[in-house]
From TrEMBL:
This is Sulfur relay protein TusC. It comes from the Bacteria. The lineage of its organism: Bacteria, Pseudomonadati, Pseudomonadota, Gammaproteobacteria, Alteromonadales. GO terms for cellular component: cytosol. Pfam families: DsrE. SUPFAM superfamilies: DsrEFH-like. PANTHER family: PROTEIN YCHN.
Length: 119
């Protein structure tokens, strides 16, 4: 089993970087060639992507829905505690299943990963 960590930094709707990192994550989980142990860590403005109650009438995608699919596929999602606090994001504001994490969590995930993608 391959262990992959995606560390996302980009704002949720200002660019398509977070959207594309979630597309990659979904594609990794959907492929059948080999088992993937995938983890997702959100830093900087990416922490806004895991907020609940998103409404995106002008876009063809909704990040909340993409996160919820990954959570249903047992992908752990953590948001950087320092980044979340600096932006006023609390655990109560996040979608069910996503959590606040620490740099120690990121460090453990990084050391355990076979591949780390920073997007």
């Amino acid at each position: 089993m391959q262990r992959i960590l995606i560390v996302a930094h980009a704002s949720p709707y200002g660019t398509e970087k977070l959207f594309n990192s979630l597309r990659i994550a979904l594609a990794l989980k959907d492929q059948d060639e080999q088992a993937i142990d995938l983890k997702l860590f959100l830093m900087s403005d990416a922490v806004f992507g895991a907020l609940k109650n998103q409404t995106t009438p002008d876009l063809s995608y909704n990040l909340q829905q993409m996160f919820e699919i990954l959570l249903a596929q047992q992908v752990p999602i953590l948001s950087c505690k320092t980044c979340a606090q600096a932006r006023g994001v609390t655990a109560e504001m996040m979608i069910d299943g996503a959590h606040i994490g620490t740099l120690q969590d990121l460090t453990r995930w990084t050391l355990a990963a076979d591949k780390v993608m920073h997007i």
